[in-house]
Amino acid sequence: MTASIDGPDLEFSGVTKIFSGRAVVRRVSLTVQPGEFIAVLGPSGSGKSTLLKIAAGFEFPDEGCILLRGKDVTTEPPYRRNVNTVFQSYALFPHMSVADNVAYGLRRKKVPQTEIAHKVKEALALVGLHRFWDNSPTTLSGGEQQRVALARALVNRPAVLLLDEPLSALDLKIRRRMQIELKRIHQEVGTTFLFVTHDQEEALVMADRIVVMREGALEQVGTAREIYDAPVTPFVADFVGELNWLDANASSGAAILSDGAQIKLPEASQHRRGPVRIGFRPEKMRLAPIDAVIGPQDNGVRATITSVTFQGPITTVDLRLTDGMIVRCQSSATDTIELPEKGGTVLCLWQIGSTLVFDASPTEQT
Amino acid sequence: MTASIDGPDLEFSGVTKIFSGRAVVRRVSLTVQPGEFIAVLGPSGSGKSTLLKIAAGFEFPDEGCILLRGKDVTTEPPYRRNVNTVFQSYALFPHMSVADNVAYGLRRKKVPQTEIAHKVKEALALVGLHRFWDNSPTTLSGGEQQRVALARALVNRPAVLLLDEPLSALDLKIRRRMQIELKRIHQEVGTTFLFVTHDQEEALVMADRIVVMREGALEQVGTAREIYDAPVTPFVADFVGELNWLDANASSGAAILSDGAQIKLPEASQHRRGPVRIGFRPEKMRLAPIDAVIGPQDNGVRATITSVTFQGPITTVDLRLTDGMIVRCQSSATDTIELPEKGGTVLCLWQIGSTLVFDASPTEQT
Amino acid sequence: MQVGPAVALFLVFLAAPLTVTIGMSLFRTTIFGVDWTLTLANYAKFFSEWLYTDLLLKSLRMAATITVVVILISFPVAFWLAKIVRPGWKITLLLLIFAPYWVSYVIRTYAWMPLLGRTGVVNYVLMSLGIIDAPLDVLLFNEFSVQLVMVYIFLPFGMVPLYLSMDRIDDNLLRAAADLGSTPASIFRHIVLPLSAPGLAGGTITVFVLAIGSYVTPRLVGGPSGIMFGNLIADQFGASFNWSWGATLSIFLVTATLAIVALISSRVSLNRIFLQP
Amino acid sequence: MQVGPAVALFLVFLAAPLTVTIGMSLFRTTIFGVDWTLTLANYAKFFSEWLYTDLLLKSLRMAATITVVVILISFPVAFWLAKIVRPGWKITLLLLIFAPYWVSYVIRTYAWMPLLGRTGVVNYVLMSLGIIDAPLDVLLFNEFSVQLVMVYIFLPFGMVPLYLSMDRIDDNLLRAAADLGSTPASIFRHIVLPLSAPGLAGGTITVFVLAIGSYVTPRLVGGPSGIMFGNLIADQFGASFNWSWGATLSIFLVTATLAIVALISSRVSLNRIFLQP
């Protein structure tokens, strides 16, 4: 409801930031549409937090510019930008009550007192904390503090809400609950969210679009399914989810392992020749008896089970191919009533369509 | 190889510990066999760490006794017990090198210098840190520090190695790697491990037997599969993995939901009558078209899909039953090529054998 | 296990000095020695003459002036140290601030005399520059010189608590305030000032207590007009050998000091001042 | 942005006092005033008479004695405060240790006179108990009384750095040492002692610097035999008005002090002593 109807809410255009001679953000261009939930995903040092600080105005780019609803804000100080930030460390003012924290931004804008009271109440209700009105933020749990920080930012109706790893200081259980909470709030208020995280699961669960960053540059931009099912580089494939890697040699629509086994390549990679890296995800693999027939849609290789680990909802099976390479299969509880046994030889099956093929270039390995 | 051949390595016998009027450990009796890897699992405040401290000699029980390889050590100070502890905070001596840390216990026992050097080298090789011999522990990463702590404890060949949430200060990725590492080391040295954790996944992955504690008392003792597939209380079921709960009324082998739908009960629960709580795990549930036939081994209820979340390896589907109760289905990537759509009505299926039945007693709810 | 040493600490550091001082104040010292009869005569004497209360009030005023000046100088320096200086330099600069403390207090005080005296450096420079014709006498041996020297000597005690308070303000709080629309001035008023209150109170109390109890500085650079209450007390023990009267005067000084401290700490809890965890 | 204030701090707190003191030591004060010709005569004078070096060595010895006694008393008290007292009580007890500091230094020193004097409390008690027949004179106005009073006054400065060092020793380190077979004595030797080295060095340096620079205590309770180097310096500024000679003596005192501090800090780095982060 706060989004304008024409043009993007936020645009990075060729943004570069250099710290002591090193480019921590490199020529990043990105357009965020009104109401989108964008996750910027990357390992530490990938420049994702710096990108967010540039959007907030805590850092200024050495090259490029930032447009906020079409207006160039590249050199504006933070207090003159219509964006708000939620920090990893919550950054609640410890000397103010929860309500005063939430009212802080409105007071700076000289909003009338009665209107402030109304809006603060509304914002605290949105995050489910209306009963903590008078509390000191220091008495709240981490999850509650982060919800106050969220209310404090959203009450100002920013053009874009910037979230800097807001959940990474929380316990796993609370983090999962907050993911759902954040998504609900996003849907309820309709504000554009730019969310920075190093946690791929978080990005997959919450974001409309995911931006994968690596060494300061954008590596891939796409929906969760695009990023997970069709990563454009081995880095993305490895960083988002687990992956089994096989080294092979491609020729006429198939890749040959060192022991002669054949991996059929998906249509888009049929043209490849020479050394390639084959990837497939552990959970897309099935184990079958050694004498099972490999279907026309499937790839299959023989392997020996080296360990079986029961993990509750899933069971992890580690296997060794006949040429020595190690792969892992993760199957959910429904399809393995009978656990396979260590030492046994089985057939590993996966669909040709979920086979990833990359250049074997050593520089792309991570 | 250090385990004695006759009798258990460690025995708790009716151990009770009271802190300011509150029993934090209540009449715990537990026998640990030589070479076992036992995980003590419980939420914070369940008394699991106190139990470990009692075994180490940092706390003394108010009632009961501790036997170490058959010898009563209840009142012995820590330095006269043949157990060693790995702490959550690593507790490496910051003013000593890695090698001096590992040699500390041997020096106290006046082991000859050449033998110490040999054993320390061996212990550091075991944890893969021989090249850090001269480093200060403060220069190492968390995972490396914990491996030094492990070497420092194991080099003394304790009867039992006590591990107090050793991995919980580590990142998720390093934690997973350390779980595998720990299991390998356990298999290599054959020492008895008593591992305290609040992380159910960790317990499931590593332990031979899991001890679930609640409010100071043992709730269930068993293998990972026993604990996960046949929890004896709703607390255990809830704490170890996720669970869908349905309130129902049992009569003649089935439980009736408020909207009249029937849940067939497994054989062992056929005798139940009156209010019961039905549990089943999200990953044991399958979704089928609304007109599918429910097999004789299956339970099935109709539900409407309220949300579908793609999470990479798994997809989570939240559903609402016709009587308003909420359930969740988690399916792995292999069996849902086509994602179900929000708002659709489907049949939720799960096997009668994986249906858990508990008393509806309100005190058992968590 | 805990009670024994705690009681010992209490006796050695609080009860004993207090008992001795109060005890002494209840007797009278005559030229023939101590008169061992309990009396409140000393207390009556204090209120019978304006001289004593006047000197006490004057000393309180001087200590207050010194404290205010120290804090006003300390605030910007502490902020600069805590929030602008790179971490690697902080310790060096902190050590620098305390550098004069390697030198005895007395020397530090005396060092001002060749600067401020009639034939001192300041007068020499001012006369060389033709700003004044005759050397100024107001620079030394009066209230001004006492306050100037004490401000210099006590500056670190104001600066360090403020620095410690500001150093623990999370930088993200300042960012969050800017993010929510605060200008730099508003950030100072709404965030920095309230959050450095413990350091402000700690520095204020420390400097005030040190200043009000001073004896050496007023004596060395104070002259007759720069004398403070501490000198009056010391004279009773030294020259006059009138211990009981000295003890009585001490009690008045301590009471006045504690009253001021109580006033300050009623606004910021002592725990927050001294235990910034 | 950083250089300006840093230079100002340097000038005000280090360069200026140093320049003034060294400058003064290079002239001579005669009865006709300052002789403005550069000379090293003051330095020559120091070495020409044993009197000065003797007094300096005696003062160093007294300061060392005081420091050792303070540290010996502080160690067990600090350990008890850091490791045995419950957290809620720590702050109360720390404040208690500093309680006497609400009272002026001079009063704290004088308070010992009615205790130790010929007609003082100690002599009165000893005579009442029949342990001695005549009052003891050795209690006051000598080296013993100076050292006793200074140990009392400087105790907190030894205790607090040790406490801070020990307080930051993770309890699990003590547990781990016990777990690995260390008896309590071995834990103290191998863990507690080395890990409290920064506090030990900090306390030692602080107490030593305070003691060697003392002037008030030796003057008040020292008598002729308890006089220290600080008094000699003060006399040059006060009674004798021989500033340049006083400055020269100060330089010798500061040099000796820094030499001792350098010796201590060569074993424990200054960063670890003053920045226990």
Q: Can you walk through the features of this model?
A:
- The complex is a heterotetramer, with two copies of chain A (366 residues) and two copies of chain C (277 residues).
- Chain A is α+β, with helices and mostly antiparallel strands and 366 residues long.
- Chain A folds into two domains: 10-237, Rossmann fold; 243-364, Nucleic acid-binding proteins (OB fold (Dihydrolipoamide Acetyltransferase, E2P)).
- Chain A has eight helices and 20 strands.
- Chain A has helices at 48-56, 98-108, 113-126, 142-154, 172-189, 200-206, 224-229, 234-239, and strands at 10-19, 22-32, 37-41, 63-68, 71-72, 83-86, 160-164, 192-197, 209-214, 217-222, 244-251, 254-256, 262-264, 274-280, 286-288, 298-310, 314-321, 326-332, 345-351, 356-359.
- In chain A, the strands form four sheets. Chain A has a six-stranded mixed beta sheet with strand order 6-7-8-3-9-10, with helices on both faces. Chain A has a five-stranded antiparallel beta sheet with strand order 13-12-11-14-20, with no helix packed on it.
- In chain A, a hairpin with a 2-residue loop joins strand 9 (209-214) and strand 10 (217-222).
- Chain A is elongated and about 75 Å long.
- Chain A starts with 9 loop residues before the first strand and ends in a 7-residue tail after the last strand.
- The mean pLDDT of chain A is 90.
- Chain C is mainly alpha-helical and 277 residues long.
- Chain C has a single domain (49-274), classed as Orthogonal Bundle (MetI-like fold).
- Chain C has helices at 3-25, 41-48, 50-84, 87-97, 105-110, 113-116, 121-128, 143-167, 171-179, 184-195, 197-212, 216-221, 229-237, 243-265, 270-274, and strands spanning 28-30, 33-35.
- A two-stranded antiparallel sheet of chain C has the order 1-2.
- In chain C, helix 8 (143-167) packs antiparallel against helix 11, helix 11 runs antiparallel to helix 14 (243-265) and helix 13 (229-237) runs antiparallel to helix 14.
- Chain C is globular.
- The model of chain C has no long low-confidence stretch (mean pLDDT 84).
- At the C-D interface, helix 1, helix 3, helix 4, helix 5 and helix 6 of C face helix 1, helix 3, helix 4, helix 5 and helix 6 of D.
